[in-house]
Protein 1
Amino acid sequence: MSEIFTNSGLFFALLGAALATFVAGIGSAIGVGKAGVAAAGVLAEDPSMFGKVLIFQLLPATQGIYGLLVAFLILSNVGLIGEVKEVTWLQGLLYFAASLPIAFAGYFSAVHQSKCAVAAIGTVAKKPDQMGKALILPAMVETYAILALLISILAVFGIAGM
Amino acid sequence: MSMLRMQRINVYALLEYCRDILEELQRRGVVEIENVDIEDSVFYKDDTSAFQARYNSLANTAKEAREILLRYAPQKKGLLSSFNGRKQLTRDEYEKLADDAQDILKAAYDIISYQKNIERNEAEKVKYEAQIEVVKPWLNLDVPMNFSGTSTTRAFIGKFAPPKSSTDIMKELAEIIPEVEGIDVETVHTDDNQTCVFILTSKQDADAVSDALRRIGFEYPSYVSTVVPKKREKEINRHINNRDGRILENQNNIKALADYADKLAFLEDYYVMKAERYSVYDDISTSNNTFVLTGYIPEQDAQKLKSYLETKYDAEVELEAADGDDVPVVLKNNKFSEPVESVIATYSYPDRHETDPTSIMAIFYYIFFGLMFSDAGYGIVMALACGICLFKFKGMDPGLRRSMKMFFWCGVSTTFWGLLFGSFFGDAVSVISNTFFHTPPPNIPGLVVPIWFNPVTDPMRMLMFSFLLGIIHLFTGLGIQAYNHIRHKDYLAVLYDVISWYLLVGGLILALLSMEMMGNIAGFVLPPICMKVGLIMAAVGAVIILFFSGRESKNPIIRLAKGAYGLYGTTSYLSDILSYSRLLALGLATGVIAQVFNQIGSMMGDSIISALIFIIIFIIGHGLNIGINALGAYVHTNRLQFVEFFGKFYTGGGRGFNPFKINTKHYTVKEDI
């Protein structure tokens, strides 16, 4: 029993890594899916728009990647990848906490960014020359995923230095 | 950093030269024609919609013919052929092709009529194939379908659906008409849906048999003919072969015209140009012998055009400085910053009264893009790819060419920052040397060890650097605002709207940096005197903003309220500066994802196979990373420019210059002026 307790640091760290990957990943999957549906609709009318609408479809993909990034940092810090390290119970919990910003801000920003991307795809379908403006609006939503990523990364680095 | 000076141009000339003058203007593409609103007893507008419609339909004919031609005789296309852009014709080549227009048009009509023949024959072929299906079940019948018997017999030709065997038919007939004998039932064909039968009986029993047959479900066939089915099948097959031959013949006729593909492309352009030229007639006014045309022209092209038109066509050309609000905007920048003009254009062209921010923005644009992408390997890939395309495809569409140039410079900047941060395809060099050569990597500055510092191991330092760049960027924006005020001789506004904010924001930053708490984050603390100086600066700035940012209101209370609201804008500076943390976040994202792929690739150890796997993962992984992070860097660089930077000074709302020019798809004409 006590062995489980002392080793559960690793478990919480892994839980954090998993959370960062799959919650942010689900958000990106939903987002890319929604934007993809809208993009395919535009292609049915005008196949030459492929290059443009593809960019919009990719916009909500980044949150999943940010999640992967944080997960990877956690895994390599606790020694699940690379050299093995001792993880205390407290450190494990801290890693878990550090994964929360990118997991949840990532999820919601991906979902809502995709709504914005769908609308922007509509804009570009009607006015292809307004690409630049249409691109900025969904990018605004991403700001919060980036801020969350920043805090998650800084936290993970901080915990490793403890 | 400038806008071209525009002039208003008025051209008065004889109507007989109208066509030639318009052609000249279209070729030069320097005049934006504006609608002349004169309609009176002398001047009127020519209605050319019929001509426009005619030329547009001819252009469509050429386009359709070319599409048909390419279907039967496809042209070879390279993978990167879309970069080729429009082909350039010399003036002589153009004249020669234009003389051939009638001939090419005839070829176009021929191609379309051949295609119509093909379609007609194909439709007929389908019809005959359907007939074959009808005849098929009866092929074993040796008599024509309308055979009804000899002098003593009576024949019934027909079918049972659903199918019935001949013994069943005999049995059922025997039950209904047991008195009749000598009924001969012969199955001609049977399948899942039907049984085709030939039934023979003597003439005197015919009526009884016919009645009995009807009762057990016998049907007469829908297909009746005087010809034996086998013979009929042969006939139909001959028809089909005939049609096939005609289709092939027409296809060969089209293929024989394969040389016309390029000429048809020219013809399409030729008629589109004509149609556009006629559409200009909507904007000019003509009298019986003269016409008037007005528009805008960049000053640098004006004199040349004026003297040309005056000497060659005896026209009267008036030029005057244009300064209305509707005057279109043309940006003029050097080679380094010109590519970024397209970024400005996606936001909005500058208003005529403000300065063109392109060249200053270009510097920040390249720096920020490089910081977010920040990998020497990726930068080299990007700069090389763009550079090679630029070098190889000289005729590339100008817009595309501009973007290529922009990404070339972005690539150069990315390489620069990548070397400073020691990132070359992530940590590829160390991973390769550790995994496959089992030696620590050589100490190559830039590729292995950072020339400056590594943001992955020292993120706080990078964060501070990002904020510093952000503050410089924002203050530069404020500086441009000051420059705009000075240009309009509004010197007080410089103090109230710009210097006040410099004092307030600058002072607060100074004070913050001399606090112990911030020292832990920043890694340094300014001496306490800075705290005092900073606070005084901030206070002076705040007072100026409080009393003067609402200065257009006469009512002192409203004015103070507006001033207080202005002070509240400090929070937006805070969020603006924090927004630059994305420089760190996206830079880290690029670097760490690159490391992830390197590590995944190296997991297999060091055999030949694992080296191959490493190479595959390396190419796919880094390709993916380049794609997604270049997109991210592009989008977020734009955002920093549009939201944070432009928010400080830019009004925009200018109208882009849209000259009357050759808007063709396939060809351009090289001018030898």
Note: The CA atoms of residues 28 and 62 of chain A lie 7 Å apart.
Protein 2
Amino acid sequence: MPEIKKTFFNFLGIVKSIKEINEKYKHPKINMTRFTSILLMFLRSYLIFILLLLLYKFISVAMD
Amino acid sequence: MIAGPGIIVMVADNDAGGITTYAATGAKYGYSLLWFLLLLGPIAYFIQEMTVRIAVVTKKGHAEAIFYAFGSFWGWFSVLDLVLTNWLTMITEFIGMTAALSIFGIHPVVTVIICWVIMGAMIIQGRYWTWEKIALFLCLVNLIYVPAAFLINPPVGEILRHTFIPSLPPGGITSNLLFLLMANVGTTIAPWMIYFQQSTVVDKGMKERDLLFSRVDTFIGSILTVIVAIFLIVVTGTLLYGVDVTSAADAAIKLMPINRYVGAFVAIGLFDAGLLGAICISLASSWAFGEVFGWAHSLNNKIREAPWFYAYYFFTLLLAGTVVLIPGAPLVLITLFVQVVATTLLPASLIFLIIILNNEELMGKYKNSLWQNIINIIIVLGLIMLSTGYSISILFPEIIKSG
């Protein structure tokens, strides 16, 4: 039980750190235009799609 | 000594996965793709030079710079990208190291333990300079493919022709060719390199006045990385052309009966490549987390001064080393696919670099020139086209034959 409590409080510590980081970097130094943000999001989504295709290829080759 | 981060990151870029990729490229296509490797040298220099400029001007590692410039959403996206690709790449390093020493009869479990001990000892003394000197020595060993190539008396005229005159290999554009091209790109320009060099320059305490020397350091590194790649392709392209080579270790084994010294050099080079790669990649991750979470994160800190920095470093070593020992894992497949994954995710990292480098408020007089922007955008578009081409070959195999 003490180990579980310790792990739980460590986990809460990480969650607190993440919240602090998000607060610290709430206002980015570079203000991207809406167009740039949308383009970046599209690029990320497209790359993730290609990544999933790669994963599919990897699994199908590994299973052959 | 200014020389260091650039040479280390470029030579470490020829890691176990890279060595496997080059060995397979030479065996499959002979000298046909030497021109492509020559092209990758300047591309690698352009990208890494950008990270050096950001580091000396902003004094921030790459992870911290992304958070600072773009906020926490893009920051976490980038860090998670890094964690995924670095973990996969670490596994390939251990795959290479265990495979290399297996050739000399050393059991994989013993190799993994030896690697853990070496990698732990390198950083435990708490001095960046000591670590750098050892890493530079490992870079020197990485050049072992140069004497290996000279030992086999390859046809120099034919090699020079293929190096300086671009041509497609017999069979034209196939999905296998696209896959290997992506793997070659992914091993020469990997996301971890961006994080690593930027953090190393910051940890080393380099300033704006050191920029010229740092550029020279990076330039020399880019030449060395291309030399290693070309010479290894020459070795396998000469002695193993047309032979089915699944990995660098497989190449070393097949080379032994032909020339035992060349085979041994390839195996030693593979171990060295894996070790150097593992050292750099685990540090890249540790630095990134240290920058973001605000932990002490310098090699000049002792373990008790930077516990989380070293804890993450050892955690990645243990995790990657353990995966390699899982029986039946498709290790060779993982090695090649990881390079391709790195290529796929690279454009997103490059876009962030370009945006930062065009911000006058952050970069001042060191912001990108028009020509630098043009070249960078060409590189990004080229990478996206390559990834798209390979995706098309997966989705519509009737359009691009497998070959």
Note: Chain B touches chain A through 34 residues (CB under 8 Å).
